[in-house]
Predict the structure.
Amino acid sequence: MKILVIEDDADMREIIARSLRKERYVVETAETYRAARAKAMGYEYDCLLLDIMLPDGNGLDLLAELQRAGRRTNVIILSARDAIEDKVKGLDLGADDYLAKPFHLAELHARLKSVLRRRRGGERLLRCGNVTADPEHFRVEVEGRPLELGRKEYDILVYFLNRPGRLVEKQTLAEAVWGDHIDQADNFDFIYAQMKNLRKRLKDAGATIEIKTAYGFGYKLAEL
């Protein structure tokens, strides 16, 4: 899961980012409206943690821009302004939740997990074929039997379980699992190696799903 933390306070931004990385999220950050806009318009995220008061703009205006551009993503507003009008406007603009500062990191993590579960229709587990993944505890099972995966193998599998049947470009997958700046890589050999290992582990475990290659484009998760 990839999160964009939009926060102008350097200490707060670093504390949030560090805590999320410990929870195995891929985390990107932005400290200004301009930087946040460039990232949110140019890359795909599972959730934005959006501060309202930025030095060069208002986070709610960014939310409105994203809505007009059709960039639908989960958003949790983080703001020291606990005004009801900000909450109402933010929710009207498509935000999924609103958390007033100061807050405990444990509450932020709980709110984030709740928002991501709602995107899955309220389901805690991800299922496709005979494969089940528990994103909150980083566990995967095939027919009820545990499947041991490497960190990136797991991240790739969960990414596709969240998008069954969807054709995914190699670059989009790389950015989601390794971070935004991976788009500057000379090639995607690192994806091929991880994908080869993941496919073998799934096949050896008797999984009834497969991540198929769409040559010249990317990959798609399918049931056998």
Q: What stands out?
A: The chain has a mean pLDDT of 93.
